[in-house]
Amino acid sequence: MRIIKNAEERKNEILDAADELFGQKGFDGTSTNDILEKVGIARGTLYHHFRSKEDIMDALIERHSARLLGTAQNIAADKSIPVVERIIRVVMALNISGGSSKEIMEHIHRPQNALMHQKIQKVIINGVPPILTEIIREGIEQGMFNTPFPYECMEMVVIYANTVFDDDMVALTEKERLSRVLAFICNVERLLGAESGSLGDVLNMFGMNHE
Fold it and tell me: What is the pLDDT of residues 116-142, one digit of tens each?
């Protein structure tokens, strides 16, 4: 008997299959036939939901972005986690992860996908500062931070971090990267009116251990 699924369920089924296949075979190595075979649907059904394989990738990026922001919001709301640790966890949660994460990053960084890269940047710049701002306000209440502009500070931080630490935007040697990270932490402490050295653990977020 033929199983009829609603549009949203079928769309997510296609995205789940593509996510897995892109992670296993790569974006270029995956054909629409591969997706059709894995889901077990006709080509017309696929094209009813997505115009092309690129359209599927764009939808995956949107889904990943929504999930990441959702995860970040959940972390920010957990007041059992200390303020500084929560800030670090929120930023770490924004690293795209999942079966096709590598393919997603390669896809959006291709020159022909500049608009998609811009779309991701827009999601981050608009979605992340409000999440971090709520944590900063808690830090202000606890006497850790002292700034009348918590949102603006986080906006500056996110824009800088999302630009300078994006390898596609700025090419850095390991030495240059460490210098930028140290300067970044120092200036964030000043922006927030925090005690010098209080955000040193942020180095761990970048996989660094500076003595």
Answer: 677 777 888 899 999 999 999 999 999
Map tokens 């296609």 to a residue.
14
Q: Is residue 154 part of a domain?
A: yes
CA proximity to 14, closest of 42, 24, 75, 148: 42
Q: What is the largest CA-CA distance in the chain?
A: 68
Distance CA 33, CA 41 (A): 10
Looking at 16, 31, 50, the residue that finishes a domain is: 50
CA distance 110 to 124: 19
State phi, psi for 67 to the nearest 5 degrees: -65, -40
C-alpha to C-alpha distance for 68 and 90, rounded to whole angstroms: 9
Q: What is the DSSP letter of 44?
A: H
Is the separation of the CB atoms in 151 and 129 below 8 Å? yes
Best CA proximity match to 142, nearest among 80, 185, 91, 83: 83
Whether 18 and 112 map to the same domain: the answer is no
The tokens describing 106, both together, are 């390669």
Q: Assess whether 195 and 108 both reside in one domain.
A: yes
pLDDT in tens, 160-211: 887 887 776 778 898 998 898 889 889 999 999 999 888 877 666 555 555 5
* This prediction's pTM: 0.73
